[in-house]
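Data availability (excerpt). All sequences and predicted token strings are deposited with the supplementary files. A representative entry, Helix-turn-helix domain-containing protein, is shown inline so that the format can be inspected without opening the archive.
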Amino acid sequence: MSQELQRKTLGDFLKARRTQLTPKQVGLPDGHTRRRTAGLRREEVAQLANISNTWYTWLEQGRDVTVSADVLDSISKALRLSELERQHLYRLSSKFLTFPLEKRQRSLSPSFKLFMENTPYPMCVTGENLEVFAWNKAAKLILFDFDAIAPKERVMIRLYFSEEAKLKINNWEEIARYAISVFRKTYDVHAAEPFYKEIVEDLMESSSEFREWWPLHQIQDTASIFLEVNHPQAGKLVFDSTTFHQVDDNQNILCCIYAPVPHTQTVERIEKLFHPLKKTI
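Structure token line:
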């Protein structure tokens, strides 16, 4: 990523966090004048961080200014950043931040492939750019028909913002917001890469929800999240998804397992989906 683009991304991130805070949240009086824009003013952030208003304004505008660790910590506290957001701010502030997208080895061991094949619940594996490159039968039957999807489209953020996902996922907004936050964390350090730029451009054009949520700069690590699928044959299926950040000692491979939630009849419905003629005695 070029330093100019890096500084712009940093400024956009700070502005997004600033505009989502109210004076009351940080212990400042609301005042009697109506605010023209939502959130805190730049001078209020500078006041809370005990730094120059001019300096903070330049930082948010993407100008080339020197950033110290103490100043970053002060800004983090002023903006009430979470630990994940603070780490993200540090990464965006590094003048040596260059993370070119690399084609890393994406091979799975025979034993892991066998484990996937024998798991009756959906599993899919992605690379560091969240592009799905391996999946099991359950994932194909329940989530998406990955075999029929072009490799370019087999990226989790694209899949979750597809029309198919909106129709079949009952809690789609929750899942889509989660997906965009996970993707944003990776995108911000790869923003100059054509692969990522094309995804954002495509989704900005095709999805009104993406256009609304993308400028918020929400970031999140992969986490356990519930997924409720309305399957055309099996009916309602409820999963608790868990992501493992290392497969076969490869830290660049992520594996997501969708475990059925107890007492939702998901296990029984999946069994009927796999064995439609099997009778229960």
